[in-house]
Amino acid sequence: MNRKANAVWQGSGKDGKGQLTTQSGVLSSNPYGFNTRFESEPGTNPEELIAAAHAGCFTMALAFQLQGAGFTADELRTEAVVTLEKDGDGFTITKSALTLTAKIPGIDQAKFDELAGIAEKNCPVSKVLNAQISLNATLSA
């Protein structure tokens, strides 16, 4: 399976502007640039997209772990916060912090923690990130 996205950039690094388009069309010429990445201008940026990918990947991986163990979630809500830090002349993504709140009938805390940990370690996005990954998982009633 292959998935693709395209980036088009015009201009210099700081003053230029880009557009991102995904194969599915979810992003279609969405703007990005220095201001959307390092300031708070409207538009997206690579780190935000990685955070979305990590949250989505982990949450789906957990749903499959739960299914395999005989559970079905009422709701899995995950936030991913990706940290971009200065590294020499460039930048590095150093962390991805996952915060999960889950409503899962019939599961106990130990099984929930076990399955969430397996999902965090085995989702494909976790595997590709060369960053510290943390998981704060809460089972709510």
Automatic annotation (TrEMBL):
One of its GO terms (biological process) is response to oxidative stress. GO terms for molecular function: peroxidase activity. InterPro entries: KH_dom-like_a/b, OsmC/Ohr_fam, OsmC/Ohrsf, OsmC_Ohr_Peroxiredoxin, Peroxiredoxin_OsmC. It holds the Pfam family OsmC. It comes from the Bacteria. Residues 1-25 are annotated as: Disordered. NCBIfam families: osmo_induc_OsmC (TIGR03562). This is Peroxiredoxin OsmC.
